[in-house]
Amino acid sequence: MISRRAVLASGLSVIALAAAAAAPAGVVVLHGKTATPDVPPIRALAERLEAAGLRTLRPDMPWSRSRYLTGPALGAFDEIGAALARLKAAGATKLFLAGHSIGATAALGYAVARGGVDGLAMIATGHVPQAYYGGPGAANRAVHDSIDRARALVLAGKGEEVAPFADNNQGQALTMHMKSADYLGWFEPGGVMDPAAQIAKAPCPVLFAVGEKDGLFPVARTQYFDRLPKDPRHVFLALEGGHAETPRLAAPRVAEFFKALS
């Protein structure tokens, strides 16, 4: 004979399981370099995810228009972790990251370094230190020279020294003043913010979206997607258009991808 206590316990277990199953997944959406969380492509992506029943957060990241580039790369990881923790505290039982451009690079770097992520959408991946260091063109040569100078300063014990350093934002040469150690954290080839170095260590399913007019498109499969750890849930998504509009174009497939993992 089944006791009333057992029935109650069983009933509570069913209720708890049902509540867990009903809790929506959460997605932290990371904007691109010198952008904001409210630029139209990022807003369109978040709105599509929310329409699919996914909770979203769009934090203003250290590479945004108003903060670029602030502090160390690992500080950005702390901010991503805090956003994921907010979603978890709100009841999300699955946690995802969707990043555009440098946001994709940071999402991958965070997942590899910190874990606790159930899926990644890398959308128009940008900020590619290995390509900057060895690539052609004036903007890449400036970054190459800045990396060498920052390395020399750090080796000389001057990692806290603030100096001007170069960046390449989709072919646009930019200059920032920051600590040499922080610069290396963002730009060191092989480092935590180098997707070519981190992609083979991805700890979860990845949707890799790229536009056919994006500068990364010719090498997107061979240098990135094909180097992911084997997982049948990975998705490669080639889209018409260029770098900036990819989050909006990819949004329906990103929503489907996360819902399938939820």
Describe this structure in words.
By secondary structure, this protein is α/β, with parallel strands linked by helices. The protein has two domains: 27-127 and 193-262, 3-Layer(aba) Sandwich (Rossmann fold); 131-190, no CATH class. 45% of the residues lie in helices and 18% in strands. The chain has ten helices and eight strands. It has helices at residues 4-22, 40-51, 73-89, 102-114, 129-134, 138-155, 180-187, 195-198, 220-224, 246-261, and strands at residues 26-30, 55-57, 95-100, 119-123, 162-169, 172-179, 206-211, 235-239. Strands 2-1-3-4-7-8 form a six-stranded parallel β-sheet, with helices on both faces. α4 links the parallel β3 and β4. α2 runs parallel beside α10 (246-261), α3 (73-89) packs across α4 and α6 crosses α7 (180-187). The protein is globular, with a radius of gyration of 20 Å.
* Cα-to-Cα separation, first versus last residue: 38 Å
Helix and strand pattern: HEHEHEHEHHEEHHEHEH
Poorly predicted regions:
1-22
Note the beta-strand portion: 15-25%
- Class of secondary structure makeup: alpha/beta
Net shape = globular
Number of helices: 10
